From TrEMBL:
It is a multi-pass membrane protein. This is CrcB-like protein-domain-containing protein. Keywords: Cell membrane, Membrane, Transmembrane, Transmembrane helix. It is found in: Cell membrane. It catalyses: fluoride(in) = fluoride(out).
Length: 297
């Protein structure tokens, strides 16, 4: 719970920090690289994490890194380049190149950051002290504090100023449900087939389809400000935490040969086809704007 919340806050904060006029690289590149780097460190330290407190490893990898990185955001960002949703003055070839750049840069940067994190963890491991596992009372307190942390997102949404909702507080409400959905899908479906991780694939595709649908609804001018903030929260929180690039990169790195290529290709193609059907058909029908039309409070 707290790791999911911190992951969302880190993603939104990092995106806000690196989004500015004349930016040299798209903002999500920083998000994916940071999450994959931390994931690499955690993977390299899996044994010490497990010996100390197993749930801490799950919190860092599944919770924090999985919520910091976002597969659905990456796919929508690519599709927005194809359709030039930013209304930039460029030809169709420029749209194609921009989408292609966001594809291969994210893939290479994520895998390189993951491997670099593993390398860094190997340098740190010899100097790590051996820690005793926390006692039962400490574990119970951590569980209780975790529940309280997520419970605090509800008063944060209702009590903080309304203009914070689209920025963060709405996303915090849906962060843990998104992470929990991904976790349940992965542990139940990933072992089913050896070809590729089915659970992560379904989580990424489901989150991409939902995020595309939320973007379409946000393009309808008649949506109320409260609904618009909730849709933004569902996109940033639920879809952002339901989908992950850090776990995706770790699974690609773990797969052998053609299986890795199949997993990457299938994930990218299906993701883009889903957005083509959901977002493309809505945009080109002329009833929905490609830019955000609804207003926030």
């Amino acid at each position: 719970m707290p790791a999911s919340i911190l992951g969302v806050l880190a993603r939104l904060g990092l995106q806000a920090l690196v989004t500015y006029d004349g930016e040299s690289i798209f903002s999500l590149a920083y998000v994916q690289a940071t999450g994959c780097f931390i994931m690499g460190i955690a993977l390299g330290m899996k044994a010490p994490f497990g010996n100390f407190y197993g749930p801490l490893y799950t919190a860092v990898t599944t919770g924090f890194c999985g919520s910091l990185t976002t597969f659905s955001g990456w796919q929508v960002d690519i599709f927005d380049s194809w359709v030039n949703s930013g209304q930039f003055h460029r030809a169709g070839l420029g749209d194609f190149i921009d989408g292609l750049t966001k594809t291969w840069v994210t893939l290479l940067l994520s895998l390189a950051s993951l491997m670099f994190g593993v390398h860094v963890s190997g340098s740190i491991l010899p100097y790590l002290p051996t820690l005793r596992p926390p006692k039962k009372n400490v574990r119970y307190c951590l569980t209780f504090l975790s529940i309280l942390t997520y419970a605090a997102t509800f008063p944060a949404y209702f009590r903080l100023p309304a203009n914070y909702r689209h920025q963060a507080t709405a996303a915090l409400l849906f962060s843990f449900p998104g992470t929990l959905t991904r976790y349940l899908l992965s542990i139940n479906l990933n072992p089913r087939i050896k070809l590729f991780p089915l659970g992560t694939f379904i989580a990424n595709m489901l989150g991409t389809a939902l995020l595309g649908a939320f973007h379409v609804v946000q393009g309808v001018p008649s949506v109320s400000p409260d609904a618009c903030s909730l849709l933004q929260g569902l996109g940033d929180g639920y879809c952002g935490c339901l989908t992950t690039v850090s776990t995706f990169a770790a699974e690609v790195d773990a797969l052998a040969g053609w299986k890795a290529s199949l997993y990457v290709t299938l994930s990218w193609v299906v993701g883009q086809l889903l957005l083509l059907v959901i977002m493309g058909s809505s945009f080109w029908a002329g009833h929905v704007s490609e830019q955000l039309s609804c207003s926030f409070q």
